[in-house]
Amino acid sequence: xxxxxxxxxxxxxxxxxxxxxxxxxxxxxxxxxxxxxxxxxxxxxxxxxxxxxxxxxxxxxxxxxxxxxxxxxxxxxxxxxxxxxxxxxxxxxxxxxxxxxxxxxxxxxxxxxxxxxxxxxxxxxxxxxxxxxxxxxxxxxxxxxxxxxxxxxxxxxxxxxxxxxxxxxxxxxxxxxxxxxxxxxxxxxxxxxxxxxxxxxxxxxxxxxxxxxxxxxxxxxxxxxxxxxxxxxxxxxxxxxxxxxxxxxxxxxxxxxxxxxxxxxxxxxxxxxxxxxxxxxxxxxxxxxxxxxxxxxxxxxxxxxxxxxxxxxxxxxxxxxxxxxxxx
Amino acid sequence: xxxxxxxxxxxxxxxxxxxxxxxxxxxxxxxxxxxxxxxxxxxxxxxxxxxxxxxxxxxxxxxxxxxxxxxxxxxxxxxxxxxxxxxxxxxxxxxxxxxxxxxxxxxxxxxxxxxxxxxxxxxxxxxxxxxxxxxxxxxxxxxxxxxxxxxxxxxxxxxxxxxxxxxxxxxxxxxxxxxxxxxxxxxxxxxxxxxxxxxxxxxxxxxxxxxxxxxxxxxxxxxxxxxxxxxxxxxxxxxxxxxxxxxxxxxxxxxxxxxxxxxxxxxxxxxxxxxxxxxxxxxxxxxxxxxxx
Lengths: 328, 293
Known about the structure:
By secondary structure, chain A is mostly helical.
């Protein structure tokens, strides 16, 4: 990245050079601060290009833009894409469906966010250390694989075409016809949540395990002297000890309520389950990339950005109110 | 911790539940593996369920004869190595620079950087910028946008600030410039956090799928993840691929299942290989997701 000295004489020359400039800097301290800035400058340009420049593209939401035609030759449509959300009954129905999916999956995600807490508390009750280590190692592993690979697992285990589950059930005579689990729209929200739990539970518990380890052992000792049972210890010492951590993560979960991601829903989506799996990010992709409606896709993105910022600030204020400290 | 060493019903239930969930997490990996080394014929009929049958390893040789697969492996490795080096170097350097209170406009530029974590212009505006920059069907699109990562810079900055400033000061008195101080003094101190960043960037790069989906149509730039996705999606006709790998043994002729499982295994093996070494970075790593600006 930065041109580091290779060593040897080049290095010495550089050192001398820097010694010289550093003496100069003491005399003119303003140069030092500019130098630091100029070293960061190329990276700040990258930040500008990849994060701020796309904001300019929001103007596409006000045009009837189609890829290939320059913007100057494109009709300016004002707020048409925004108003069509409410005025066009078909579009409104679509967006409401997508919002319903987004909210349902996020709500299930927030409900299941207590599972890592339970996982961590009960794991600490396991006294056999090697068992504990094996559990931790193997349950964290799924967090590090891609959703494409998760889909590959899902395909092998649940495919209608010689998937493990179907073959097992058929060989036991429990079903006659293989079940098309991946290609059905039954319980889509729930199955997406369960895959999320499978992938993230062990990983999510790590922060709570760290929090539990940080609880003062004297608290347990004191409670035990007072005659507290194992469950009372969990409830009255461990749970309060990890509540702050849980609260912060809950707040972050609320802040990210409409950002439930893309990849998982994209790889699991198919013609059958699209009506229930299509969350906002997937919808923007389908509208913009698949159907080439850049204007409407951008309009949705703008609204989504605004709502997420509002949620973020609301969550932040809530956090300040409850624990006297924000999350951003 | 307890004087009470009796095994209660709670213990039995607790151990059983953990054992079951652990099995559920691990079994897919095992199931995948036994299917790649079993008879391709049995495997494609779903008859390899709990243990390998008629073990052979030819799939792992055959699979790289599939057109495009070696290239995809190269692209995946390339982006992982280059992307990780760039991101780690930039995160270390910027974290160090932003730890300097003397930097011109530090507060403003730090906000400028951190704010980008909280908004997103959206897919289409981002795509059009990438298009204008010539980053469609360009390897640089895999590594350049991720160079500056606010999360990682916060981590390094916090870490540098926790190291004794006297070390930097004495080096400065000796006449060392910023780059020398960064390289000779700060770098050795922040190695643990850089290792954490390296691991998480490398895994992120290896697993990355969306950028190929959005930005790449040139099959020479496809990654393993993308190719694997296409095998499930039906975009690639597995039937034509199968003919490409002739096998000495009829039972082990390439099937759709053998290609899918073996490519999946090729995708998962690097993760499994590095996994034991980075477990100790977990706690630091998860802070990445819950870090505070």
